[in-house]
Amino acid sequence: MTQNGTAPNRGDLVRAAILGLLGTRGPSSRADIARLLGVSPATVTQTTKELLARRLVTELESVPSQGGRPARLLGLDRAAGGAIGAKVTANHIALVSVDLDGSVRSSQSIRFDPRPYGALDVLGSILSDAVARHEGNLLGIGVGIPGAVDAQASGIVDAPTIGWDRAPVGPRLRELLGVPVLVDNDVNTLAAAESVYGIGRQHSSYIVVTIGLGVGCGIVQQGIVSRGAHGGAGEIGHIPVTDNGPLCGCGNRGCLEAHIGEAGLVAEAVRRGVVHPDGGVADLSAAAHAGEAEALAIYDGAGRMLGRSLAGVVHTLDPECVLLMGEGIGDWGFWERGFEDAFRRALMPTRRGVRCVVEPWTEDQWAVGAASLVLATPFDAVAGGAQGELVRARLQAGTPATSAAVSP
């Protein structure tokens, strides 16, 4: 039964399941789809015929079969819909326009100050311009925020680092734009992207850890992004690691992020005389690349602190895999030795084989992650609440739903 008490249409469920399978597993044959979904080959044939006619899926290359003619693979039609992703930072908005398969059409960075009164209206204006430029069927907008979000579908934000306290991001943007808007913590958006287009295709339980300005963690358990009771799950940057340590942006002292976030690394580099008091993380990186022992020691120590902390997270969550990414990953070679040694040593013997994957970082990945809040909803029959239902309706219809149907 659906939430409104009406029985779901079986054809809708099969269509959604096929789209979900192609989105999460990638191109598949009709026989594989029938086997994996537990439905008859005739049902798959009939349903995919409809999806092909509506240009939601497309036929790809043939692959050898065990008998008879080669099987044709089906994949998502990237032109069936697209999304806009926006990552909000303390000084700019990163924007992307993407196709259904996650391919980036365009990207840009726009200066933005989130602190003044009326900042949400400015954000709405920026996104309105992006909506006007978007070609084709816009499924919705995803917004990534460096803070806690009560729920994707509502989008009330607490983000102290950018001065937002109970900010009605979702309701205000829906009012201004008239399209579905999904809002979440920025690291959770990366986890959402991985669930559809990345490591989530091979693992149902994993964590995404980011290093850079701060330290964040997105948690995926059994294919679902875990958000916690108040939307703040995964704040591993605020694990206390020292008594009376450096002051953290959260107001406490000795947090992991205060030590190994960008500001913490630079402060330690200044203390050791590696960089000038006016220097930044680029200067620390340059010193490490030049082979300066103190710079290398700072990264090694940061890697060890991260490794020990993540061992505790692995013991708590028992993920299949740990994915490391973020702006700071370009210097991972300096973190790695200390991290691997401390991480493996601190793990229980039964956990020491957990897989760690380091993903190269590009400037637009935060915004692509935000767009994935929208792109993931067609592949999950409950994701995004009422906003997710509107996204799925737009995809099924092939044309935008009316703005009047979009409620905050």
Automatic annotation (TrEMBL):
InterPro entries assigned to the protein according to its UniProt record, in alphabetical order: ATPase_NBD, HTH_MarR-typ, ROK, ROK_cs, WH-like_DNA-bd_sf, WH_DNA-bd_sf
Q: Which GO terms describe its molecular function?
A: DNA-binding transcription factor activity
Q: Where is the HTH marR-type domain?
A: 16-60
Instruction: Spell out the Pfam families in the cross-references.
Output: MarR_2, ROK
Q: Which family does it belong to?
A: Belongs to the ROK (NagC/XylR) family.
The entry's protein name is: ROK family transcriptional regulator
From which lineage does this chain's organism come? Bacteria, Bacillati, Actinomycetota, Actinomycetes, Micrococcales
